[in-house]
Structures are given as structure tokens and as C-alpha cells.
Amino acid sequence: MKIIIKDTKANASTAAFKLFSKGIKQGAKVLGLATGSTPVDLYREWVASDLDTSELTSINLDEYVGLSPDNDQSYHYFMQKHLFEQKPFKQSYVPDGLKAAADPEGVSAEYNQIIKDHPIDIQLLGLGQNGHIAFNEPGTSFDSITHEVKLTENTIKANSRFFSTIDEVPKTAICMGIANIMAAKEVIIMAFGESKADAVKKMIEGPVTEAVPASILQKHANVTVIIDEAAASKL
Ligand code: GLP
């Protein structure tokens, strides 16, 4: 694992953007994208840049089950607002949360096929406080592919800050599996703030265990961890 520590989230996001831009300039065509508060600065920088996305394909990690694309808490909406409206891609894929409410297995199978048809060159990731990647919670098999996940209480609580009440947070999501993520040619994972320090330590220094999904990244041949000093404070 290559580890980059910057003093602030802003500087770490700039470093991540540079790495992403370099990969795109070197020919990356399929980008795996993430949501959450972590990549927001990176996307802001991307929107302000002259980096052209019109020939690129994006594939997002996950979507809440039951939320329509125009629901302002859906990951579809998040991506439109933070990146796609200003930087349209040739094609962009996000799991269909509404369709998944009726047919989670069908939507998962379709999404796996999409990933198979468009192998991911660079996968961007955030990190959950409990070490999750995308919505792959502790205990998820390292062999998992796109599937419906039941969110843990910890994740529902952490993500409730974006909803008016905790009861509005969906209980399940459709999410790329850990095997899909590991198949990406390059991975860039970012984590900021003290609340991520424990997960960062376990991801980098802990044993590789399904109890800490992100620890599997120790086995990936091309992964860069980009963190601020607060997230690095327990290393
Ligand atoms: C969610 C997302 C993850 C994200 C994580 C951390 O559960 N599914 O993709 O990495 O939260 O979120 P944040 O970046 O807001 O800390």
C-alpha cells in the first residue's frame, strides 16, 4: 500500500485529484466512483478543472434500496449534483434503487454484468468508521460480488446525519462486492478526520480479516491510501 498523509482534508483531496488525473491522462477509461462526504472536495476540484470526462465511463459503488434517482438522499442525486451535471460522462452507472426494492437479485446480477463488461481502471473509495468499503459491512465475504446488503446500526446512525430523521435512512442497499472492488486495476482510498483513525489503523496495520473489510486492500497490487493527519493519528 502506498500511503500519502497530508495536513488537511483539502490538501489530501488535491493529491487524490492529481492521482486520478494522472491515471486518466495515462489512459484510464472506466472509473469506479464513490459517494459520502469524503470525495466531495475531490469532485469540486474535478468540476473546476479542464479534465474531460466525455469519453469516460463511470460505475458507482452503491445505492440505497427504495430511493428514486430524484430523491435528494439517493446516491444518483449525489452524483448528479457533485459531478455529472457539470462533467457528463459517456455513460454512468449507479444501481437502480427503486427497481431493487422489487428485484434486488435481478438488479445485482445486471450490475455485475455491467462491471464485467467494463473492467474498472481506477476505483475510488471512502472508508466507513467500522472499516466498511462501499456498503460492505464487517463480516462480508471477500469473495462477494454485487449484492443487497443490510446496513448495520452503526452505518445507519453514521449516515443519518444526511436525513431529517434516522427512520428515513434506508435499511438496505445494493452494493458492489469486495471481489468487484479488488478486480479494479488501481484503487485510491481516502479517509479524513479523527472518526476514521481506528479504521485507518486496522486497514493498514491490522490483520487481513473479513471483520475489517478494508483490510483486504493490503493484498491489492496497486492501492494508494490518501489521508489527513487526523485520520493518520493512530498509525
Ligand atoms: C457510506 C458509503 C461509503 C462511504 C462511507 C463513509 O456508508 N456507502 O461509500 O465511504 O459511508 O462516508 P463518509 O465519506 O461520509 O464518511
From TrEMBL:
Catalytic residues of the enzyme: D62, N130, H132, E137
InterPro entries per record: Glc/Gal-6P_isomerase, Glucosamine6P_isomerase, Glucosamine6P_isomerase_CS, NagB/RpiA_transferase-like
CDD domains membership: GlcN6P_deaminase (cd01399)
This protein's UniProt keywords: Carbohydrate metabolism, Hydrolase
Group of enzyme by EC: hydrolase
Pathway: Amino-sugar metabolism; N-acetylneuraminate degradation; D-fructose 6-phosphate from N-acetylneuraminate: step 5/5
Catalytic activity entry: alpha-D-glucosamine 6-phosphate + H2O = beta-D-fructose 6-phosphate + NH4(+)
Listed EC numbers: 3.5.99.6
Record-annotated Glucosamine/galactosamine-6-phosphate isomerase domain positions: 25-223
Family designation: Belongs to the glucosamine/galactosamine-6-phosphate isomerase family. NagB subfamily.
Cross-referenced PANTHER family: GLUCOSAMINE-6-PHOSPHATE ISOMERASE
Role of this protein: Catalyzes the reversible isomerization-deamination of glucosamine 6-phosphate (GlcN6P) to form fructose 6-phosphate (Fru6P) and ammonium ion.
The protein's name: Glucosamine-6-phosphate deaminase
